[in-house]
Amino acid sequence: SATRPTVLIPGNINARVRERVEAEFDAVAIASADASLMDAEARAKISGIACSTAINADFIDAFPNLSIIASFGVGYDAVDAKHAASRGVMVSNTPDVLSDEVADTTVGLLLNTLREFPKAEAYLRAGRWAAEGAYPLTPLTLRGRTVGIFGLGRIGLSIAQRLEAFGLPIHYHTRTKRNDVDYPWHDSLASLAAAVDTLIVVVPGGAATEKAVNAEILGALGPNGVLISVGRGSTIDEPALIAALAERMIAAAGLDVFADEPNVPQALMDLPNACLLPHVASASVSTRNAMADLVVDNLAAWLDGRPALTPVPECAALDRKPS
Ligand code: NDP
Q1: pTM value?
Q2: Which of 29, 236, 280, 316 is the most buried (most CB within 10 A)?
Q3: Would the CB of 102 count as within 6 Å of ligand 1?
Q4: Alpha-carbon distance 201 to 147, whole Å?
Q5: Residue limits of the D-isomer specific 2-hydroxyacid dehydrogenase catalytic domain (predicted)?
Q6: Quick check: is 186 catalytic?
Q7: Is the bond leading into 262 cis (omega within 30 degrees of zero)?
Q8: How far is the CA of 65 from the centre of ligand 1 (A)?
Q9: Which helix (H) or strand (E) holds 171?
Q10: Ligand 1 atom 29: the closest Cα is on which residue?
Q11: DSSP-derived secondary structure for 39-83
């Protein structure tokens, strides 16, 4: 109808987001977040954006009546939320609804990395069990490990709770110590890495965590060390990790995220002690549906004059009071 707000979808997005946006708003789609794909009159009609792609300051400035950017995913490092906030534009993300799924995936990736289950299955499927006998015993195990969680937020805490049930001691590093957990806190990543042999990285991407996991941190984990990375690829110094795995400075790594997705360095793929997943930590139908609904529910609430459901911290001050 003529009274419905207009919502823009730049680039690819989850199918349920697209269907609901088309059903509940006047929907406009463009191939990528490039403002030159629309004329000024079309841009002036846009009041909401639903996105799963990078949104920079210039793109935000191209929409004079923009009111909300609803980003798909909990990590929103690709959206310039500070700039949006300075322009009075709300930014929402999709926290909590994916935390259990991502934590489950992290435990699976950790076990696959240590116990080589993907390789053992490939061995069976290749007929080698029958032809050659038992799969070789794995040098690595979860037993006896001490886990360090870099980023004990919503997902990190869900991972910690699972690994506590596995009987493992947990340490963590965040900028601010949590007062609701008893796990030992470390005031630096270097201190955490020195105290543990298994480092799980689940901090947000962005400048503050860029290449934080470098050669020094990997060296501190030691030759039995294992790195699991499920936050953002930008947080790992990938060439340093490749060298550490090749030289056995650490024992193994499990990665769901990479510096230049979907391109994974051949050197990483060639390493037998790297266990690699194509950014699937939250990628079940049910969890992605819950994320999709939260994207559209944020748009619907905000464009109807109500508070956003899940505003990002940079935009919390813009939020409306519940009536
Ligand atoms: P939260 O904001 O709840 O947690 C982030 C944690 O990281 C907090 O404990 C925070 O503590 C800590 N942190 C942030 N910056 C730093 C820093 N510079 N140094 C040390 N610690 C830091 O986020 P979630 O747990 O919900 O999500 C975490 C991230 O996981 C997302 O941002 C996303 O990038 C990634 N992710 C990846 C997925 C995948 O598919 N692989 C799926 C979902 C999420 P403090 O502020 O005190 O430092």
Answers
A1: 0.98
A2: 236
A3: yes
A4: 11
A5: 18-312
A6: no
A7: yes
A8: 31
A9: strand 170-173
A10: 204
A11: -HHHHHTEEEEEESS-B-HHHHHT-TT--EEEESSS--TTB-HHH
